[in-house]
Amino acid sequence: MNGGLLVAGTTSDAGKSVVTAGICRWLVRQGVKVAPFKAQNMSLNSFVTRQGAEIGRAQAMQAQACRIEPTALMNPVLLKPGGEQSSQVVLLGKPVGELSARGYHGGRQQKLLGTVLDCLAELRGTYDAVICEGAGSPAEINLRRTDIVNMGIARGARLPVLVVGDIDRGGVFASFFGTVALLSPEDQELVAGFLVNKFRGDVSLLEPGLEMLHGLTGRRAYGVLPFRHGLGIDEEDGLRVSLRGTVRESAVTPPVGEDVLRVAVCAIPLMSNFTDVDALAAEPGVVVRFVDRPEELADADLVVVPGTRGTVRALAWLRERGLADALVRRAAQHRPVLGVCGGFQILGEHIEDEVESRAGAVDGLGVLPVRVRFAREKTLTRPAGQALGERVEGYEIHHGVASVEGGEAFISDDDGHSLDGCRVGQTWGTHWHGSLESDGFRRAFLREVAAAAGRRFVPAPDTSFAALREEQLDRLGDLIEQHADTDALWRLIESGAPQGLPFIPPGAPA
């Protein structure tokens, strides 16, 4: 087998990421050597490979579905929004500059088509199959000329296209038909069919519509996936925070001890890697919610200030909302606060930023004895160390360089020398994303939080975040295996789009 497939969608958030991961996990369980690919990703949820390259977390999750290590080849272009009009461009894992949306789509994007096709070709030369994920919709006719992630990559690599539609939103038949009808004849030749996502109810009631859609387009449905809670793992967030992912949908498992533990996450602007708190929500009895008002911190046992692509902007937002004063009061009262990456920088005394915001000197909240200077070079590492007597691993993605001038070290090496972070009382800060996925460290941290909060909360002794993630990926594979026409899907991946697919007018505008 030496095949490929592009999973496109009628809209953003139609389910492309999870469907791609599900197909990858289904294939690898059949003995296929498979890899994921997304030419261009817009997300503030990113990950660092073992080679020190930054890619979207969705592609890292899909690589895990394939049971392989993620590499920069799997996501050659990553756009990290810094506001409504501009993004940091990360090329092959390294930042290459900031560009406005007009500047990127006006010329830079199209020049990258050769690069992304080369990356895809290298993957296809190594793996039996490569399952590619599109972005947004392939029928964004205003962007088709410079497209490198949807039909641009499908045309360049002759990939068959499967269009996913979220029926839970409604209008899925019109979306399927309209997506095809707004593509050029050459693009339409590659659109093989459709996959319905998030269906609730009796599938037999849907079948007449699917038959009519087949008659109208000449393209079949490759399956109807039922709605399942808690499958929005490692989402791509664009410029907003989705509150429908794993943390937000999963029911809270009863606590092992007598009390639950309440965690409030400050929903700061340009929040990055909010997936850090998924590991907290995986613990039985831990309730995670996102908040944007100071009164919502009152009953929280732990407040998390997460990472952000705009540290100075997030700090101003916290002050405008009254959350900054609430955080300072919590710290003074020795009530637990955790700052991660940008959140750690916000909790410090002073920020010098001529890189990200170009705001110059800015006072932080002053609850940790830390001074931060933004460097032009981005730190991208996969460190490991010790904290609270437990092994801890993480990854770093930041321009801010922290100078710790007091308090206790948070994370140390095996010899006790400080590696990262700071602790004063019940306020902690670290640049390490993903540290809470280390099970022993997470349990030790939650025990400290519970003691400080006066809660009779006991971490479960056997929660394995890695095992829970594997279970989720297997659930995605099961969805494909049980609810998609896998024989037809196999032929599509191996042989490409069927020949003679009809053109649906009007096609792309001239």
UniProtKB/TrEMBL annotation:
CobB/CobQ-like glutamine amidotransferase domain span: 262-439
Record-annotated active site: 341 (nucleophile), 433
The UniProt record lists the keyword Protease: no
Keyword Iron: no
InterPro entries noted in UniProt: Class_I_gatase-like (IPR029062), CobQ/CobB/MinD/ParA_Nub-bd_dom (IPR002586), CobQ_GATase1 (IPR033949), CobQ_N (IPR047045), CobQ_synth (IPR004459), GATase_3 (IPR011698), P-loop_NTPase (IPR027417)
CDD domains with a match to the protein in the record: CobQ_N, GATase1_CobQ
One biological process term in Gene Ontology: cobalamin biosynthetic process
CobQ/CobB/MinD/ParA nucleotide binding domain ranges (all copies): 6-238
Keywords: Cobalamin biosynthesis, Glutamine amidotransferase
Entries under Pfam families matching the protein: CbiA, GATase_3
GO MF term set: ABC-type vitamin B12 transporter activity; catalytic activity
Pathway membership: Cofactor biosynthesis; adenosylcobalamin biosynthesis
Family: Belongs to the CobB/CobQ family. CobQ subfamily.
Function: Catalyzes amidations at positions B, D, E, and G on adenosylcobyrinic A,C-diamide. NH(2) groups are provided by glutamine, and one molecule of ATP is hydrogenolyzed for each amidation.
NCBIfam families in UniProt: cobQ (TIGR00313), PRK00784.1 (NF001989)
Name under which the protein is recorded: Cobyric acid synthase
Native species: Streptomyces filipinensis
